[in-house]
Write a structure and sequence with these properties.
The chain is an alpha/beta fold. It is built from 10 helices and 8 strands.
């Protein structure tokens, strides 16, 4: 299927979900309710930017969730690290692909999860030393750099390495997913941290020397809502709407739509256990 065919399919899914499957809205907001959703560059299949409007797994889910409580979605362009600050300040209302931790939970409510994220260290195995565990990274030559998304969280073990005064210079912060992949392909960095499903979508059907070498971190990721700009009442309705959509199978239908065109399990490309096709069970942190 070419890109135009994929986009047409995504739009068709959105129309089908919006017109045929949506149950009545839960405690609909008054007219004018709008959720400002931050996104930056394309991150297929989660976020896909098109000339017409954003598409993708996360986009379809947030649109459907917002509609359940009578809200619309406005897309706001913002790099990831800045988006987190704007979310904490109430300048935007929601982001996706957000890992829960107690520090973030002070300012952010977590609804979902919408995906089980698996972060891999990806490199050309012919150009880097063997890597069996994260503890081997300090043995890499100091000239070898790893691109990481600025503001991203990749688990406590990697965070400990990033906080080390000697090792932190090995990690090259970038503002977008597109930047880190461009740096890898240009040879300016020797490895990147990338989400498994996103990597699979990027390279499927293509010849590449790069391989996922080590699973660095696995965690559920959520829609994160600002506690400053989104009321506790609306958060409760959003959470109830998410549970209803999960139980009705509508979230699973969106997930199936984006996994099906791949033609192979993501885990097969990663040399790991396959990504689960099932929606994660609701586990909110309000």
């Amino acid at each position: 299927m070419d890109v135009r065919g994929k986009i047409a399919g995504w739009r068709g899914l959105g129309m089908m979900l919006g017109l045929a499957l949506c149950p009545p809205a839960i405690g609909a907001e008054p007219p004018g309710c709008e959720l400002r959703f931050a996104l930056d560059t394309s991150f297929p299949p989660h976020i896909v930017l098109t000339p017409q409007q954003p598409e993708g797994l996360n986009v379809q889910m947030i649109r459907l969730l917002a509609a359940q409580v009578g809200c619309s979605v406005r897309f706001v362009n913002s790099p990831w690290a800045r988006a987190l600050k704007l979310l904490q300040q109430g300048e935007i209302d929601v982001v996706s692909q957000l890992t829960y931790n107690q520090s973030r939970a002070k300012d952010i409510a977590f609804i979902g999860p919408h995906h089980q994220e698996r972060m891999w260290l990806i490199a050309d195995p012919a150009k880097v030393p063997p890597l069996r565990q994260l503890a081997d990274l300090p043995q890499w030559p100091a000239s070898m750099l790893i691109a990481v998304l600025n503001g991203g969280y990749f688990g406590p073990q990697l965070q400990q390495l990033r906080d080390d005064p000697v090792l932190q210079r090995r990690f090259y912060p970038v503002v977008s997913n597109q930047d880190k992949l461009a740096l890898l392909e240009s040879g300016r960095v020797q490895a990147v941290l990338e989400e498994e499903l996103a990597w699979f979508w990027r390279v499927k059907g293509q010849a590449t020397a790069y391989r996922p070498l080590l699973l660095v971190h696995a965690d559920p990721v959520y829609f994160g809502f600002s506690r400053v700009s989104v009321s506790a009442e609306l958060l409760a309705r959003l959470d109830a709407a998410w549970l209803q959509l999960y139980r009705s199978g509508q979230l699973q239908q969106i997930r199936d739509h984006y996994l099906a065109p791949a033609g192979a399990e993501p885990g097969a490309a990663a040399g790991s256990a396959a990504v689960s096709s099932r929606m994660p069970a609701p586990d909110p942190h309000l």
